[in-house]
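Lecture notes, unit on protein representations.

Consider one protein chain, 267 amino acids long.
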Amino acid sequence: MEQAQDAPGRWNHAFALQSGQTQKHELSETRLWVTLLDNEWQVRWERDAGETDRTDWRQLVSHVLPGSEVKQHRFIRPDEGGDVLFMPALADRPTMIRPYQPLTLPAGRECTIYVATLVWLRILVGNTRTQLIELPLAEPSLTWVGRSTMDGELCYTAPTYARLVLDAVPKRPWRAISPVRICNRRPEPLLLERFSLPTPYLSLHMNDRGQLWTPRVTVTCDTDMEHAAMRISRRLPSEAGACEMLAAGRMRYDRGVLTKALDRIFG
């Protein structure tokens, strides 16, 4: 019979396995099994879209494996170490945030919305912390953003409530909170039906409550411009508290400001 561990699953923590043991994790929409054998590591996972209301990260260690219908991935052991770590990463494409209810920002006004995006999971093993695999914790949906099929980019899409109050944002261990400040300096209102979050450029941090945060993103729409300036803060928002960095951005940019066409940011 499977025996639950006292501690729940968590990021950047070394779980020690013995040969023959399997650690099962349940988080977001994913069930994951990591098995250590004498000469190899094995990883299995499956998704269940019906688990979207899960709030805690469960893990346990046993000698029980899932059925053969769950696909198996095998990896030669990089060294004799039996540790396994789980690290989060942001998506490798921009994420198009879609508020369930559109939000209108009047001319000359600013607002901050808080969005929580699902992270990807990296499995690191052994004394060398060798990465075995990286996978999204839910099946990602894709959308095209741009003025035409030739001018644009492929993004992930994620529905959100686009909260204006941080306390209203549900806290999940597998979601990263990003404050987005939008400044509308144009003479007409700005309708926020969707917004492209530059996830590949954002670093990922964890505070002492186990919450994941990214730096603040500021988007400024100037008067009579077809482009908007996007700035990523070098500091974390004060609301995050004391944090440690878990992952640098997947991509780097030389300038402090990214400039994009409005239809690349707001769809």
